[in-house]
Amino acid sequence: MRISTSLRTHPAVLAIPFVGVFFCYVFLTSTRRIEHLVDLPWAAQAASYAVHAPFPMAAAAAAGLSAVEATRLKALGTWELGSAKPTWRIAVQPILITVGSLSVLTAGVMAGGLWVVGVFPDLYALQLMGIVVVLLTAHAVIGFVIGYRLHALYSAPLVAVAVFTGISFPLGTDRFWAHHVTGSIGWVGFGEAYSPAMTAAAILPTAGLAIACVALAGPRRIHVRSVALALVVAVGGLLGAYGITMDWRSVPPTSKGLAPVTCSGNKPTLCLPEAGSDHLGEVRARLAEMTGRLKARGIIAQEPRRITDSAVADVPQIDTTGRDWTLALGPGDADQVLRENIAISVVGMPCEKPDWDILHFNTLWVAQTIGVEDDYLAWLSRETQEFSQGQTRDQLLTETARVSKLPPQEQKAWYAQQLRSACQAGR
Fold first, then answer.
1. 73 vs 12, 97, 147, CA distance in Å?
2. What is the largest CA-CA distance in the chain?
3. Nearest alpha carbon to residue 260 among 118, 122, 127, 117
4. Average pLDDT over every residue of 351-357
5. Which pLDDT score is estimated for 265?
6. What secondary structure letter does DSSP report for 338?
7. Is the Cβ–Cβ distance between 264 and 287 less than 8 Å?
8. Helix 152-168 vs helix 123-149: angle between axes, to the nearest 10 degrees?
């Protein structure tokens, strides 16, 4: 069949306006909070956020519409050309049209996410789109084979529902490995991208099932050998993906540390993501002043040599021990990023289960030392429903005012004793 005729009559092409409108609705309703990615833009993160919701629908549409086209071609007698033209050549064109149509719509959703965030696509976003195309191709092959074997009147809606459910339902279970083998598009964070293991786990089961369907589509009569081969390939793909993901938690092991980093100064050297480094010098100077005050009061034994934003750290976990610190700084000027978060990070977790009510004294003391007392008290008021839990605002301020009149050595001893008390009370 000529390509121009196929494009005019193919159900996937005819469905583009309807699927496109539906995708627009899904995009607008599922990405209402995508603006929080604007301050620290990363193309792969925006792309995964945008595509996550519509992809199961795109895969279901690819399978269902391919089934309809296969049945339509069968009704037209196209398969009778098999003696003059290989069956696979007859199938390739309609499958590619299906994949192309749904890929264009999915790419449009991805482009919308990138546009809202204000970032151009990079290799990692294109990698994600490549995974989408491979998965859509596999689903289109599955639907086409089912439509070839069974009439689309009932097989098309059934395969579409099966694909959508198969991708989406496991995401709600507590078996974390199942989250990563359905072919759903998972979110990646700033500076992250799909790792080779994530890519293989996402593709293997669906690709294996597609190849199994092809094995069953070849002969006009299904033989035992074809069934056995199909089972081996389908089960092998699933077991391979399970072997990769069996130890994973809900957050898969992405490729990390990919975002460009900018470092500046010394004592401390401050490293921020390049995308949020507009105020690096100002932030570094304020941090140097804060750490100097903390050391002078004996709250920390030594000033940090290097401070790294958690967004670009090798281990994205807050750490204020030793000479290399990791803090959640985020984009913005010093007044925006150096608030109560610094005091909370400095106190940290002195033990596994501290008594937070006691620890509030330490954190307020640190906040007063570095000049963010008002920010911390405002945060604590929100956390405790306006001080209805634990100590009152006046109790906290009265105690820290009393301690501020003590000699420096007694202040240091008080701080250490409060930490010990918090740990002992929390046991």
1. 14, 14, 10
2. 98
3. 122
4. 87
5. 87
6. S
7. no
8. 140
Q: What is the pTM of this model?
A: 0.85
Residue carrying structure tokens 């992809």: 55
For 230, the token pair is 């199909």
The pair of structure tokens assigned to 16 is 């583009």
Residue 19 in tokens? 């699927």
Query: End-to-end CA distance of the chain, in Å?
Result: 76
Judged by DSSP in three states, 210 sits in helix
Distance CA 331, CA 163 (A): 40
Q: How confident is the model at residue 288 (pLDDT cuts 50, 70, 90)?
A: very high
How does DSSP assign 65-115, residue by residue? HHHHHHHHHHHTTGGGGGGTS-HHHHHHHHHHHHHHHHHHHHHHHHHHHHH
Question: Does the structure show a pLDDT above 80 at 213?
Answer: yes
Q: What is the pLDDT of residues 371-421, one digit of tens each?
A: 999 999 999 999 888 888 878 889 999 999 999 999 999 999 999 999 999
Where residue 315 falls among pLDDT bands split at 50, 70, 90?
confident
Q: How far apart are CA 270 and CA 103, in angstroms?
A: 42
Helix/strand/coil (H/E/C) assignment for every residue in 113-159:
HHHHHCCCCCHHHHHHHHHHHHHHHHHHHHHHHHHHHCCHHHHHHHH
Instruction: Please determine, for residue 14, whether its predicted confidence score (pLDDT) is greater than 80.
Output: yes
Rounded to the nearest angstrom, the gap between the alpha carbon of residue 425 and the centroid of all alpha carbons in its chain is 38
Which tokens belong to 190? 């700033």
